[in-house]
Amino acid sequence: MKVRRSVLALFLISEAAVIAMGAWAYSEGRSYPGNGATMGALILTLPFLLERVGWFKLPLFMHLWAVLAVGLHTFGLVMKLYDSTWWWDELTHTISSSMACMIAALGLYLFDIHSVKIKVPRWAYPLMVLTFAMFIGVVWEVAEFTGDQLAGTRMQYSLADTLSDLYVDLLGGLMTSFLWVSWLWRDPSGELQSSVQKPLVRLLDRVF
Prior knowledge:
Elements: H1 5-27, H2 31-52, H3 60-78, H4 81-84, H5 88-114, H6 124-151, H7 159-182, H8 198-207
Helix pairs in contact: 1-2, 1-3, 2-3, 3-5, 5-6, 5-7, 6-7
């Protein structure tokens, strides 16, 4: 399936930037930021591939949101901003959490409109989004702790740092909840409803 030009351009530019930052980190012998850039490049590839195979067209503003989240995180790792700038961690956590919650809310919305078996009342969206924000935040902190213990990554600085991350993850969830309640679930252009393509709809019908 043909990929939208705007998506293709955004994908190529963001991939080039993230890969360049990773290559720079590897050239200096810094494997941790290099590995982070590699993971970021893989994350940015996923929505492009889903559109390429004709399963899913992620709305462009969500593409931009994902690029911002991955780009700021990678830039912070490579430039050591997580160590030198106290608010960088809060900034990236807020943006990443809101982006992850946005995609989760989109998934709920698509299940709601395409499934006859699964229905999500609109009042439940904010509650589910906030629950997902805390869930994904806890999973991330557990992953950081595991990395610190097994690989000495030093991602967690203190208990206060961990709790601060969870607070801003919740803030990201609140931001997404506000956007859905005030604007997105009206879907005036139909972009959200049309994001899932027929092959994926047929697959979900068989599964659910």
